[in-house]
């Protein structure tokens, strides 16, 4: 009889099999069954339904006095996605979206996640929370085969924005991450966000931007390859990955995911919290036409935010947060300010803001007209 693990290994493809076998032994699976039990029966439990990014599930900005156990459910889905016209990725995802959905809790709360690995999947998966303490962020306690589920609980001890990602061991870790398996958790201070002077800060809405670098192979004719399943894609994808040059750098899973009909929307006067994660590479977000009023560049709310940044830095494997009050209507471009990656590879989002134009902030004094170059403009030169 064919065992689940044998089927898993076979389905991944002959070329990938030695690597997968090695990866299964790459990280120790911890046994914590002998640890002293913890009695949390007095704590209130609440359930949060995760939503598809860039939106974020309902949550309070200021927490009740007592910590709670916040329950989430998340399903791992392997599926093909179209990153751009003609470019398809055999993706691995949390809850079917890239990035995985954002979770929000408060410092001192307990996060309790039930993680399902769909039986249709081919791969082992787990979850590593950068917000958690011990057991490789929970990765050593959550490794599940297709058709299995697991439940992990951890205490959110540090406020901030943090990446989570799949980390099943060895060379599987970078492959799963750049195939889409990363998301973000935000741990708010119990009394909410504060400005540098310690004054309360509130936001009207949250936009979650997950940035991904993809490595999609091409054939001898320069056309993007397409694969039958995620296992078949591994050898060719690994070759591109090891070259360290992404084929695409995108927000929320594909080129144009947050532009055009998919653009984000806000109103003049609204304060918007942008949470930006990148699980693999450094990036430099910038809001064209706006500023970072308050920026937690490394995403950690125990540290005072910086003010008035034009561009900020998100280190690979981390998430940052920026608050901006939109003062003018119009279309704002939110980009990775490596402009080659923003324009040519896809790392651009648009925010459409409704409202009334304020000429005091900016005015077109004269519309473009032709001028007499024989007499005008010469005084501009040194």
TrEMBL record:
The keyword Signal applies. Binds 1 Cu(+) ion. It comes from the Bacteria. Its EC number is 1.7.2.1. It is found in: Periplasm. One of its GO terms (cellular component) is periplasmic space. It is an enzyme of class 1 (oxidoreductase). One of its GO terms (molecular function) is nitrite reductase (NO-forming) activity. Residues 78-190, 207-356 form the Plastocyanin-like domain. Cu cation binds at residues 125, 130, 165-166, 176, 181, 337. Pfam families: Cu-oxidase, Cu-oxidase_3. It catalyses: nitric oxide + Fe(III)-[cytochrome c] + H2O = Fe(II)-[cytochrome c] + nitrite + 2 H(+). Keywords: Copper, FAD, Flavoprotein, Metal-binding, Nitrate assimilation, Oxidoreductase, Periplasm, Repeat, Signal. Residues 1-21 form the signal peptide. Pathway: Nitrogen metabolism; nitrate reduction (denitrification); dinitrogen from nitrate: step 2/4. GO terms for biological process: denitrification pathway; nitrate assimilation. Homotrimer. NCBIfam families: Cu_nitrite_red (TIGR02376). PANTHER family: FI03373P-RELATED, MULTI-COPPER OXIDASE. This is Copper-containing nitrite reductase.
């Amino acid at each position: 009889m064919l065992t689940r693990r044998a089927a898993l290994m076979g389905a991944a493809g002959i070329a990938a099999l030695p690597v997968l076998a090695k990866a299964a032994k790459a990280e120790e699976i911890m046994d914590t069954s002998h640890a002293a039990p913890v009695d949390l029966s007095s704590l209130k439990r609440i359930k949060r339904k995760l939503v598809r990014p860039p939106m974020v599930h309902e949550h309070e900005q200021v927490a009740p006095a007592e910590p709670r156990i916040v329950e989430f459910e998340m399903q791992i889905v392997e599926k093909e996605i179209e990153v751009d016209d003609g470019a398809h990725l055999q993706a691995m995802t949390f809850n079917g979206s890239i990035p995985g959905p954002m979770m929000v809790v408060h410092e001192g709360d307990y996060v309790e996640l039930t993680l399902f690995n769909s039986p249709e999947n081919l791969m082992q998966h787990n979850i590593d929370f950068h917000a958690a303490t011990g057991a490789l962020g929970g990765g050593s306690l959550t490794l599940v085969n297709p058709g299995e589920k697991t439940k992990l609980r951890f205490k959110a001890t540090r406020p901030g924005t943090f990446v989570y990602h799949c980390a099943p061991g060895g060379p599987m870790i970078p492959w799963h991450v750049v195939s889409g398996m990363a998301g973000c958790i935000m741990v708010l201070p119990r009394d909410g966000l504060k400005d540098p002077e310690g004054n309360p800060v509130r936001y009207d809405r949250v936009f979650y931007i997950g940035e991904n670098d993809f490595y999609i192979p091409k054939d001898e004719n320069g056309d993007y390859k397409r694969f039958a399943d995620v296992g078949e894609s591994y050898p060719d994808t690994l070759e591109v990955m090891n070259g360290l040059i992404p084929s695409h750098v995108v927000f929320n899973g594909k080129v144009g995911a947050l532009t055009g009909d998919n653009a984000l929307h806000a109103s003049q006067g609204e304060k918007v919290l942008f949470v930006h994660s990148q699980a693999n590479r450094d990036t430099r977000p910038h809001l064209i036409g706006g500023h970072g009023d308050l920026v937690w560049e490394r995403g950690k709310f125990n540290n005072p935010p910086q003010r008035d940044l034009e561009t900020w830095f998100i280190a690979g494997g981390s998430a940052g947060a920026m608050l901006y009050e939109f003062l003018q209507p119009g279309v704002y471009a939110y980009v990775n300010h490596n402009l080659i990656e923003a324009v040519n590879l896809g790392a651009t989002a648009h925010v459409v803001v409704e409202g009334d134009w304020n000429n005091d902030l900016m005015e077109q004094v004269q519309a473009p007209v032709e001028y007499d170059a024989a007499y005008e403009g010469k005084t501009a030169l040194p």
